[in-house]
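Hello again,

I reread your note about wanting to compare the complex against the isolated chains. To keep things tidy I'm splitting this into two emails, and this first one only covers the full assembly. Below are the input lines as submitted, including protein chains and any nucleic acid or small-molecule components. They are followed by the predicted structure of everything together. The single-chain runs will come separately.
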Amino acid sequence: MEIDPFIFRLSIFILSIFIGYYVVWSVTPSLHTPLMSVTNAISSVIIVGAIIAGLAGNSQSIFNTSSIFGFLAISLAAINIFGGFLVTQRMLQMYKKKKKDK
Amino acid sequence: MSANLSAIFYLVSGVLFILALRGLSSPETSRQGNFFGILGMIIAITVTFLSIGNFSNGFIYVLIFLLIGGLIGAFIAYKIPMTAMPELVAGFHSLVGLAAVFVAISAFLNPEAFNLGTSGNIKLGSLIEMSIGAAVGAITFSGSIIAFLKLQGIMSGAPITFKGQHPLNAIILISIIILTYLLCSTQSSNFFWILLAVSFIIGFLLIVPIGGADMPVVISMLNSYSGWAAAGIGFTLENSALIITGALVGSSGAILSYIMCKGMNRSFFNVILGGFGATEQSTSSVNKEQKPVKNGNAEDAAFLMKNASSVIIVPGYGMAVAQAQHALREMVDTLKKNEIKVSYAIHPVAGRMPGHMNVLLAEANVPYDEVFELEEINNDFANADVAFVIGANDVTNPVAKTDPQSPIYGMPVLDVEKCKSVLFVKRSLSPGYAGIDNDLFYKENTLMLFADAKKMTEDITKNL
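Full-complex prediction:
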């Protein structure tokens, strides 16, 4: 009997939850704000679905209801991706150790 | 590009996202982690383009919309002040939610493009996954909008409760399940739209009754929701990068919510059901006027600190509101010149989001190895000369340790009262968010400094 591919995806999902659990517990509390902004950025990988939706229109009609939602989703996700990674970067630049010469 | 090859690349980007979070285990590795995250995103987007292959005319529009969003995002990222980080994160959550909704709508209207069957005859599994993604996305969106409005101060931070709230929410949640069932059995688009509308409403209703100081929990929870929404869409699209990311973000948000609830010694459901702090105010305000407090000024505070050998600073949300972090840092510089040891004590729920205070102190160039968490520093208060409480209140209240009747009893608090003397910067004697009087105000060794946090800090620096 063949295993439904869904089961494989479910396995990935469950194992990733466990990975997430252990990885996030090891995040130092002082970096919890950057953690939130970076998770924001990476969850916007949903943009891959938006791109598929946006490119789904045929050459006669690039804009149909479905692809318009795709295009809008691309912009929304892109705001998050650029905004999320850049603001995380900006925050992380600020975390500095004590200077030795003080 | 073959489907197998692109699946492998999606897996690679999923792994890079794991490394991005892993990097945050210490500030030294965090920047590298962020780089991994960016790399993972670039791979995922590139592979998507390559796997579609046939770009046709739509490609240029994809780039245009990508660029528009990217520019807006970059602009926000550079302009936003660090004190506004909670609002920003709430706003970003709402966008993830809305993007998930849009992708689900698009997949529902044009299932052929996603290999989900044909319109009106979508595969059952995909339809269920799509409904979950869309519903959770919609809840994330409207919930985050409310959180954003509350944090911005556009909407009152006070909990809004009304009679029959919980039964109403329960009915709506059940109706979501029924609608999903109906949608799957009839494939009718009407049910899909109703499902979305109802999900938007419940997101709104769930966050409205939750008060301002519970925002750390709310933001973490919405963070978690945005992850589950992404995972739901990931299942629909059969995309492992999205499934992995969704699971990571979902569990990350859940853990943060847990940490925040523990920091307040409250159960998750207690926070979610909301309304905390609305009723306490009236009972506690009766007897507080009579008790004497010692009122001080900047000179007294400067005198105390100058003669101290160690000072512990306890920042809270008030510091963020007054934007006092830079002034504080200047004051600490002066103290350090006088050979006074200074450290910072951060309560888990200080501020409006997890890690809020740490970011503000980092912005003001405070080295992160001078900043300590509650467990790390709580024993040091007994040996310190001065505790400087700036903008914090409930998290220092000794009543949490002594009075079983108190609503905050059992909440872990900073042992500020063990210091030889306590300086308390506050605008007035009003109780904190929880509506409970702080015994610390009336202690023998407490000096109240009634002023704006920033102005007071500057004045103290002048007097040092």
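For quick reference: The helical segments of chain A are 5-25, 32-43, 47-54, 65-94.

B.
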